[in-house]
Amino acid sequence: MDSQEQLIGVSADNSVYRRRRDEIAALAANYVRGDVIPEIEYTDAEHAVWRLVAERLQERHHSLAAPEFLDAAEQLDVGVEGIPQLQQVADRLDELTGFRLQPAAGVVPFHRFCGSLADGYFHSTQYIRDGATPFYSTEPDVLHEVIGHGSALADRRFAQLYRLAGEAVRRVETETAQQFISKVFWFTIECGLLDAADGPRAYGASIVSSYGELDQFRAAEIRPLAIADMVHVSYDITRYQDTLYSARSLTHLEDVAGEFWATCDDVSIERLLAVAK
């Protein structure tokens, strides 16, 4: 453990962290879409958490993240020195792909979160994880949102996949259909892989923003990307995934997941679930 990790960890007090988290979340709770995103005066310790984790992630990304993700992250260019202001990231994304960010107080219900993607809005938290556990977070934080999702949203092809998922959620009416769209979103946007000559590489936001899972994901059972196969697979968002899906290329991802989101409805998903049983 290096000195920076020790400095972050020794002063950790979960109650202090929760108060700070709630303080930042309250600003998001009062936010009205279209307003300037509130600026957060982050502490030196919070910037240190970002710097520590972002530097370690950057090292892993060179050998374990998909080239398409790396190119997108380079375009976004948030840096590793400290937590960027969300308005700054939002302005850059708007320039690149037309996506905008909306502050979130915490986990947003999937229907509202994903539905907003159809309008080109991504809900993002602004607080950063507890300094006692800099390499692990039980909930989304600004590091996951910006380095994971924000980087992908800086690429027009990835951004279009987000939009298609949002349109699909808006289109369906049954809870069963929404849950299956959520599952496909999880196994692609959150935990997706792309084939590469040296082994599968990650583009999914949950993996590329997790130092630990970047080290572990190749140990999972990695299956070829197939929507129908996902019917049989369960997942747990609180742990590393046992099963992952890898597309042959970004074009293949667009052809499979993108086409599914572009065309699915309640009837087609009900039929898929029935046939796959």
Summarize the structure.
With about 280 residues, the protein is α/β, with parallel strands linked by helices. The protein contains 13 helices and six strands.
SSE layout and pairing:
Blueprint lengths: L2 H8 L3 H16 L14 H21 L2 H10 L9 H12 L2 E4 L6 H8 L3 E4 L17 H12 L2 H16 L3 H16 L2 E2 L6 E2 L2 H4 L2 H6 L4 E4 L18 E5 L2 H14 L2 H11 L1
Parallel strand pairs: 1-2, 3-6, 5-6
Antiparallel strand pairs: 3-4
Describe the structure using short key phrases.
single chain, 277 residues, alpha/beta, 4-stranded mixed sheet, two-stranded parallel ribbon, 13 helices, 56% helix, globular
Walk me through what this model shows:
The protein has 277 residues and is of the alpha/beta class. Helix content is 56%, strand content 8%. The chain has 13 helices and six strands. The protein has helices at residues 3-10, 14-29, 44-64, 67-76, 86-97, 110-117, 142-153, 156-171, 175-190, 205-208, 211-216, 250-263, 266-276; strands spanning 100-103, 121-124, 193-194, 201-202, 221-224, 243-247. It has a four-stranded mixed β-sheet. It has a two-stranded parallel sheet with strand order 1-2. Strand 3 and strand 4 (201-202) form a beta hairpin. The radius of gyration is 18 Å and the shape is globular. Residues 1-12 have low confidence and may be disordered.
